[in-house]
Amino acid sequence: MQRPSLLPIRGLPLLNAYGPVKYGGVYTVTLIPGDGVGAEITDSVKEIFEHVNAPIEWEQYNVSGLTSAGESLFQQAMDSMKRNRVGLKGILFTPIEAASHNSWNVAMRQQLDIYASVVLCKSLRGVPTRHSNVDFAIIRENTEGEYSGLEHQSFPGVVESLKVSTRAKAERISRFAFDFALKNGRKKVTCVHKANIMKLGDGLFLRTFREVAEEYKSSGIEFNDMIVDNTSMQLVAKPTQFDVMVMPNLYGAIVSNIGAALVGGPGIVPGCNIGREYALFEPGARHVANDIMGTNKANPAAMILSATMMLRHLGLDGIADSIATATYDVINSGSVKTADMGGNATTTDFTAAVIKNL
Ligand SMILES: NC(=O)C1=CN([C@@H]2O[C@H](COP(=O)(O)OP(=O)(O)OC[C@H]3O[C@@H](n4cnc5c(N)ncnc54)[C@H](O)[C@@H]3O)[C@@H](O)[C@H]2O)C=CC1
Ligand SMILES: O=C(O)CCC(=O)C(=O)O
Ligand SMILES: [Mg+2]
C-alpha cells in the first residue's frame, strides 16, 4: 500500500507564522472551487470531509476567471484567505486576449506571498507508467520571474516582457528547498535554470542557490544544478535521478506538468502554495479542464490528496492519514478508474469508493 507519508505536510519547512484560525475546535477554511471541473472535484472533498466529520467549516467563494466581472468576488475571497490563513482551491481560467484580466491564480500567489509551490510526483502501483519508482518534489518560486506580469509594447511589433529576479526571493526559495529536503529525509537538491543564456537573472538564482547550498553542506544533503532543456530530457528519460528540484517560476510550471505526466497525469498529483502567513492547497498540475466540465469524468484524486495535505498542515494528521490511505487504496486497487486512468468510472464513483474504504 502507498502510505500517505509521501505527502510533505509534516515537513513543510515554514509553518505559518500566525497559525490557522480555529473557533470551538473547528477550522474555518476558504474554499474557491474554481472554473472547469473545480466544482465537481471540490464536491468530492466536501462529501468525504462530511463523512469523516472533519472539523472544517468552509467559507466558499465561487470566483470565476471566465469574465473580469468576478474581480470583486475575487477580492472578497482574498480577504477571507487573509482572515483564515488556509485555503483550498481549484483552478481559475485565464483568458489569453491582451485586453483581458491578468491571471487571478497568479494574483493570489503574489497578494498572499505564498512563494513556494510544492508539487509531489510519485509513481503509484495502480497507475502503470513508462517509469516506475519516480519520486521527486518540485519546489517552484511562485511570485516573480516570468510571472511578474510586466509587459509593454515599446514600438509596434516589439514587445518587452520583464522577467524579474531578486536575490532575496532566490534565497528564500533555495532555503525552503533545503529545509524541505531535510524534513522529508530527501538526499539531493537540484537547481534548474537557464543561466547560460540569462546570465544575470538565472545567474543570480543559481549563484544564490549555491551559496545557500554551502550553508547546508554539513547536513549531508547533496546538490547539483541542471539547465532546464537538459532537465526536460532527463525527466523523460531518467526521472529517478531527481529527488528535490528547485527552480524559477515558469520552469516550475513546465516541469510540474512533465512530472505529473510521468506518474499518471493531472488528476492525481497534489500540490500546495506556502508562505510565511498563508497556505493555499490546489492540484499540482493546475488545470481547469473545461473540456470535461460537467461530465462527471474528472479524476478528483489530486484535489482530495491536496485537501489531505491541508488537513495535515492544520495538525489533523489522523483524518489526513485515513483519507489519503483510502484514496491511494482506490487508485492502487485499480478497481475504480476514471477516464484519465484508462477506465470509465465517474467522479462520483471514485468519491464513493474512497468513502467506502474509510
Ligand atoms: N492555477 C494555475 O496556475 C493555472 C491555470 N491555468 C488556466 O487553465 C486554463 C486552461 O489550461 P490548460 O493548461 O490549457 O489545460 P486544461 O485545463 O485544458 O487541462 C489539460 C488537460 O488535462 C485534463 N485534466 C485536467 N485535470 C483533470 C482531472 N482532474 N481529471 C481528468 N483530466 C484532467 C483536461 O481534461 C485536459 O485534457 C487556462 O485559462 C490557464 O490560464 C492553467 C495552468 C495553471
Ligand atoms: O494562472 C494561470 O492561468 C496560468 C498559470 C500557470 O500555468 C501556472 O502557473 O502553472
Ligand atoms: Mg500551468
From TrEMBL:
SUPFAM superfamilies: Isocitrate/Isopropylmalate dehydrogenase-like. InterPro entries: Isocitrate_DH_NAD (IPR004434), IsoPropMal-DH-like_dom (IPR024084). The lineage of its organism: Eukaryota, Fungi, Dikarya, Basidiomycota, Agaricomycotina. One of its GO terms (cellular component) is mitochondrion. Keywords: Mitochondrion, Transit peptide, Tricarboxylic acid cycle. It is an enzyme of class 1 (oxidoreductase). Its EC number is 1.1.1.41. GO terms for biological process: isocitrate metabolic process; tricarboxylic acid cycle. The keyword 4Fe-4S does not apply. GO terms for molecular function: isocitrate dehydrogenase (NAD+) activity. It catalyses: D-threo-isocitrate + NAD(+) = 2-oxoglutarate + CO2 + NADH. This is Isocitrate dehydrogenase [NAD] subunit 1, mitochondrial. The keyword Mitochondrion applies. Residues 28-354 form the Isopropylmalate dehydrogenase-like domain. Pfam families: Iso_dh (PF00180). It is found in: Mitochondrion. Belongs to the isocitrate and isopropylmalate dehydrogenases family. Octamer of two non-identical subunits IDH1 and IDH2.
